[in-house]
Each structure stands twice: as structure tokens, then as C-alpha cells.
User: What shape does this take?
Amino acid sequence: MGARVEVSHLNIVAQAGGKDLPIVTDVSFRIEPGEVLALIGESGSGKTTIALSLMGYARQGCRISGGTIRVGDVDVLGLSASEQRSLRGRTVSYIAQSAAASFNPSRTIMDQVVEVASIHGLMSREQAEAKAVALFRDLALPNPQTIGQRYPHQVSGGQLQRLMAAMALICDPALVILDEPTTALDVTTQIEVLQAFRRVVRERHTTAVYVTHDLAVVAQMADRILVLRQGRQQEQAETRQIIESPQDDYTKSLIAAAKPAPRDAGRLAPDAATTPLLEVRSLIAGYGALDKHGLPGSPVLSDVSFTLHRGQALGVIGESGSGKTTLARAIAGLVAPARGQILFDGQALAPDVSARSRDQLRRVQIVFQMADTALNPAHTIEMLLARPLQLYFGLKGEPLKKRIAQLLDLVQLPAQCAQRLPGGLSGGQKQRVNFARALAAEPDLILCDEVTSALDTVVGAAVLDLLAPLRRELGLSYVFISHDLNTVRAVCDDIVVLYAGNKVESVPRAAFSQAARHPYFELLASSVPELRQGWLDQRSSTSRLALPPMAVGTPPNPELCSFLDRCPLRVSGACDTTAPPRRRLRGDVEILCHRSEADLIALQPASV
Amino acid sequence: MSTAIETSPPAAVPARLVPRLSRWSRTGLLGLAVLVFWLFIAAAGPWILPHGSGDMSTAGVFEAISRTHWLGTDYLGRDILSRVMDGARYTVGVALAATVMACAAGTLLGLLAAVNGGWFDAVLSRLLDTLVSIPSKMLALIIVAAFGSSIPLLIVTVAVVYTPGAYRIARALAVNINAMDYVTVARARGEGRMYIMLHEVLPNIAGPLLADMGLRFVYAVLLLASLSFLGLGVQPPVADWGSLVRENIGALPTGGAAVIAPALAIATLTIAVNLVIDNLPGRAQANQESR
Assistant: This one.
């Protein structure tokens, strides 16, 4: 049974250079027993700081400077340090974003799950283990009796996140803090974890604080929402009210960013007669030494083909490990393909970057996910942008300066940025610099590898807004890689779906909503949380059996469909004996499946 | 180790090699003052000696501190203050030259190994590991025994002894930087290895390398002192601080300044260098930012 939580006039400051910098200002809220409150906001909005303060904890360099926090009848801030220690884990517990970083890799899971109970001396080891097993069962973990004997690296990311929930719940805490617990997970995994969390929180009637930046997730989990911006509360209301009729302007912008609108670049009709800009033919790539058949030791891409016309944007979508990034790297020449061809403007590109001509390199640019690791921290923005201009065009002096200013203007950065180091820019600004650097080469094709995934929703949306006009004005083409279907739909003309290195479907945007979907694509599409309450419950009731995660490394039988083990629509006698055929369906859809088009459309619940 | 590309006028932003005085902490300033003092003595030595470093005094051997001999005299009756000031030239000079050589060679090889990788890295690393497995004093002893003792040889010997260590640090740092996306971007842009080594990797490892160079300088001073103490270092009549300690070891029972002064000189120099390294303003700031 959860406790009532009351926070009033909470102030938290960071100490920097002898001065106090406010990071949370006058935040007050109240959570009724058994209620779930969501703290939502961008990074830096103070949501995690507030969540941690509920345990009486402030991160190094920070201090809780005012206000009161009551959990049940305990005044958290009035406790001594040792009393606060006994509160943590027992009365208030915490589930962190990265379970992988929170588990000790050298001890078994069970040891770590029951540790809290033994630290607080609440129960014997046997009792604690029995309770842990019951929790594993409630959290829908496979083999609840024996999973505790494994080590953290022996279970999947989604399972580890649920095991961390078991660790947090073992002492029956009065308040649970969930800090972005599903942000690092794939959508198909996220949904299982969310379902498990929701069930245990409901059944135990636990009071919970859910910290996230993802409104669609919050709509499923929370009863009330508190919107934060720069440490101040913007709006606080029932979930329904926030989603359906937000009052605050900032909340409105958050909701708008959560539903990305298509950014149409006025697509140029692909002309079958002209040479495609990029043509990938039967690409096989991977890592490790080649075996006797000339195939890599750990294959990542098997037999991927697609074409991209000038001015087009092609979306590549799939879970982590599906080979998206390897595809981009192979096109850029950073991973030499074992077999297959990459034709650029009709010419075959050499497999390795060192064998490509400078002009070929110039015409294909790549932009990475992590904006800050892609910029050399020792170079000013000016130096970063100057280099491709000098290398490819030999610009110097005044023309060089002019072009740099032009590029900064193109990505909507102020000209003063030029003299700064990357460390002095925000995440969104850094990603704009990355684009400016790619544009400096005047390329024909930009490979965008998860370019908005590490950014806040609102900031990411602004970067996406930049892409469409650039494409129109400069005649660019994009290969846009993402795990987020909404983003891909918003930017791309065609979508390629990768699963375990196979292209299982390609579909033009025009045909997107009516087309038959490969069972994997269907799973992916139906797993993206929607911004409406009750979506998760609705989906749970129509949901199929929990599916095993994607096999890592070599599939059990490389001859057969890679999705076989997870497929809810498999046909025995066909799928488990012969490889699926690649077929063309209506509306320029290409699919790798045994099922007929009519079957696929009939068997899939109409969604999206 | 300048980081600026020639073309753009160096903006005020890139880290200065020696940060402004106002940004130093008090302990750092203390170290810096002592270090500058010794560097000055080493450079200006011959012109400011109170007595000739070889001149024997009429006052006698192991003379106590007096107005003419501020630190007394040594076992031959020479002025200790002059000997210590003169010795600074050898100790600081040889150690500095050797350290710069070792660090330059180690950094260059480390960068080559990290950026080229593969068999080049493997062969080079194992070769230098072999060198490490020979105890440094033994190695120096063999070299000196084989080729005799001269100052250039001494510099090369100490440099050889410390190259593998500098290599290891440089390689380890460079391997990490080499895996960063911005190096991948440079490679995809078609940059050559030299550009990647010098412009992408080096500026980002320069800070820790500089700190390591300071430490290595301290080791070099100590190695030189011990070599001289063993009689393998700078040969009489000139003397560095290590040989001064050895020459005057006889003064130890009577508590003469003759042996304490050069030992103190070694101690102050090494401590000063350590203080400077630990309090480099840029590093303190970097630590704060990474937190």
C-alpha cells in the first residue's frame, strides 16, 4: 500500500564558483496513495533532480535549499543522514534509466535483488528469495525460479529493467521512483516492460513518480502530470486534461512535438529512366575475419538491396541490432562489404573509403547520432567547417569566411558560434553544426544515422524541420536511419524495414497506411505508444503472446525467415521449411514473407 | 604542440599551452615559482656563481656555513652553493633534454600505432615491452659500460629508458580518441593518416601527455641522480646534484650542508614539478566539466 506524498515549495540549487544557481524553483505537488504522478520535461528541466530529492538526496554539487517533502508521515528533509539511508530502498526506492549500468556484472541477479532487504534487516534470505521469485512472476519474467541464478549480462535489456523493478519493490516501498525506465529500450521491448510495470504498480497500489520526456508513455502510466521547464512547474493536471486540452504554451509545444507532422519536401517524382543516385545491390556486410565462403565472421547485413533517386528521402527502420548503422557505414565506406555492390550515380563505389576518389567521398556525407562525439572538442566551429571547404574546394581567406557564415545561416545558427568550441553549444546546436559540416561538402547524399535520437523531442523536431527545406533547396537526398517510426514517417518518401540484417519490407509513404505489412513491421508499428490514454490496456487485450527477443548473432537456421521465432503469423510447413520469397505487391510494396497479401491484410488488426 | 590550423587566425578559444598566471591556484604558483627559479639558475649558472665551481677554498674541507661560503664547503674544500648552482645545469638540462626526446618519440610512435593499428601496433608494442622488461638502471649501466659516459650519451640513455612508458600512455590515449566519431568523420572525408594523427587526435591527448611529461621529467631527474650516485653519470670534475650527494656522503655523520644542499635541490625540483602538474589550471577546469 502506497503512502501519500506531499512536496511543498521545493528549491534546489547547484553550487558553482561560490554562487548558488537555482535548478529547481518553488515546486509543489501532492500524490495520493496509489496514484502515479509523471514529471515531464526536457533534459535540464530538473525532473530527475526532483525525483532524487524525494529520497532526501541531491547530486554532488547540488543542495536542497528549501521546502518540505513528506512521504507518508515522514518529513524526509528533517531526517539525519543515517535515517535517510534507512529510508532509501525501504520506504522510497528508485528504478534508474540504465539497468545495465546499475547492476554489478560480477554478482548474480538474485544476490543483488535481495540485497536491499538484507541491508535493512527486513527478512531472512529465504523469505527474500521467495518474495523475489513471486515478483519475477508478477513482472512476467521467463523462468522466474531460475532467472535469479544468472548474471546481468545473461539476460536481455528489457528483462534487466524488470529485474531492477523487482529489486526496487522487494521491500514493499511506500513510494517508487521510475526514472526514464524505458527510454533506452526498443519499442517492442518497451511495451512489455511498460505492461509489467503497470500491472505491479496497480496490483500493489504503490504510489509512484514516473520521470520521462515521452508524453505517449506518460499517457499510459500516469494519473497526473506535472510539466517542468527549467526547474519551474508549468502546468499540473490530470493526464486526460493535459493531453486533450493543455493550457500552457510550453505543454502545447511538447504535445505538438510528440505528434510529428509530415514534412513534405514536394517530392520529385522518381524517373525510372534516369540513373538512380544510389543503388545498393545484394549487400552482405559484417564484422570479423572472412570465412572460406568469403562471408564475415559475424554477419550483420544479408542481401540488402534498394534504390534511391535524386531528391528522395529513404527511411531505414529497425530495432537495435538490425543492421541500420552498418548499412550507413557500408555506404560511407567505413565498413567494407563482403559481397554486393554499391552504385553511386551509376558508378560502383569501392568497398573501402581509402580506395574511393575524393569527389566520391565529397558527394556522400554522414551525420551521426551522438552530436558531441562527432565534433572534435579541440576545434572551434569555424575550424570544423573550414576543413571540408579547404579539402574539397581549396577555399581560403575571405571566400572561406563567407562560406562558413553562409553555412551557419543555412542551419540557423548565429554567426558568433563560429569562434566557439563544441563544448559551448547545446545538443541541438551541435547537431546543426554536424549538418553544416556535411553541407559544406556540397554533397548529393547525406546519411543520417539516428540524428535526432539523442535530442529532446522539441529540439529534435526543430532539427527535422531543417531537413525538408534543405532537401528542396539544395536537391539533396537522404538515407534517414531511425528506430522511431513516427520520425521516419515524417521525413521520408520510402521506408525500408530491416530485421536482423534482412530487408523484410519496403513501402512508399503513399501506400503506408493501406499496404500489407510484414508481420515484423506490423509488430513494430503497433508497438509505438500512441498519445492517448488507455492505448496500452487496449493493446494488451489484443496482444499476442510475449515474443522472444531478436536472436543476436547467427540465426538458428540462416536459410529460413529470420523473424520465424517471433512471428505470430507463421505457417507451419512453409515458414519452417523454405526461405520466404521476395515479392512485389500492389502500390510498389516489396515484402519478404510466405503469406499472401490478402492474408496479411486480413490477419492484422487495423491500426495506425 | 600547437593545435591551431594555419589557415584560420587562431581564435582566443583553443587552450593556451601555459595558462594565464591569474588562473593558477596558490599551490600551483608556488611550484611554478620554484621551477622557474631552478630553470633560471640552470640557464644563468656560469655568470652568477659566487665562486668558481672548481675553486678550492682556503677554509678547508666540510667547512660549516659561513659568510664567504653560504652553504659551507665540500670534501675538497669547494664552495657548495656554487657547486649546486652549477650542477643545476646538468641535472635540469640533461633531464629536460632526455624527457623531451622520450616524450616526443613515445608520442609519435604511440600515435602511429593507434592510427595504423593491426600488425604495426602489435609489433611495435611488443618491441617496446621487451625494452621495459630490462630494469632501467641495468639498461643504463650496460649502455654506459659499453660506450663510456658522456653527456650526449647520458641524454640518449635516459631518453631510451623512458620512451616505452611515454609510448604506452600516448598509445592508450590515442586509441580511445581514434574510436571517436569525429575521427570516423575525418576518415570518411578522405583525410590522410598524418592529418588524423596531428589534427584530430593529438590536440585531444595533449593535456594528459603534458602532465605525463612532467612526471617523466621527475623520474629522469631521479634516474640521473642515482646514476651519478653510482658513478655512472656526469663525470668529475663537473658534477650534477646526484654526484654532489655521492661526493659528499662523508659529510653525513657531521650533518654538513655539503650533502644536504644538493639532496634538497633534487627534492625541491621534483616536488615543484609535481605541484605544477597537479595544479595546471586547464586540468582543474576539465575535471570540473567532466563531473
